[in-house]
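Deliverable D5.2: sample structural annotation.
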Amino acid sequence: MATVGLVVHPDRLQAAELARTAARWLLDHGHEVRLPKDDAGLAGLPAAATDDDAFPDGLDLAVSLGGDGTMLRTVDLVAEEGVPVLGVNVGQLGYLAAVEPADMVHALERFLDGAFTIEERMLLRVTVESSGVTSLALNEAVVEKTPMGHTVRLSVWIDDTFWTTYAADGLIVATPTGSTAYSLSARGPILAPDLLALVLTPVSPHQLFDRSMVFGATTKLRLEVCGPRTATLSADGRNLGELQDGDAVVCTGADERARLVTFEPRDFHHVLKTKFSLNDR
């Protein structure tokens, strides 16, 4: 018997329907089903509800039912326990999800039969110095301005050596997986997802040096707020709070890995061509 967790997109009816379908199939085959409390309410599966903190305990598989944002939330819930994640694409871009809705039950069968592979992705560890609050991120950490119409000043240290101070809308520290997310929209480079690296990308910098920089995964990047304007910190879209003058965030590669379930080799460059409509050129 396997224990399978389901994570549901909050605003897509199809995701809730798929959760009910998956739960019914799994229970009929003698497996245990578990959902975070809010997701269980959305899917109409109250008997399977559990607290977020207890959700990953003993899980054999976590199934993400949504888009890339739901995948990020699922990875955040289970990464520290090393639980593999299967993404079912109920979104638009679907960079991370390996399975389409019509193939979900077959994918569950294949996983339970052991006919799958695990693709490991680097994670970012984000730590707020003053509070010790820490978080993992599959895509990126972002420190950005809060006042409208103003920049924020952020000093950067590279492995404890001062680099420079940016006046910008914000700074992004991205993983290779996250290089095709917010960092890309800020004109950062695209990295193959199997690399181990960090990308530092400024957002609308008000200075001559406006380039992204790529570092090794073990590099420690420290971002400190300078001056009276506050900033906000987020990790994979989760707000981690406000930063005041002198507050600093440290980002580096995590020891943990996101473990994504795949069934056939995925050609990253083919996916990239498809998502950017390059096949017709």
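Annotation notes: The helical segments are 13-28, 37-43, 68-78, 104-112, 182-185, 268-275. The first strand starts at residue 3 and ends at 8.
The annotation will be released with the project's public dataset once the embargo ends.
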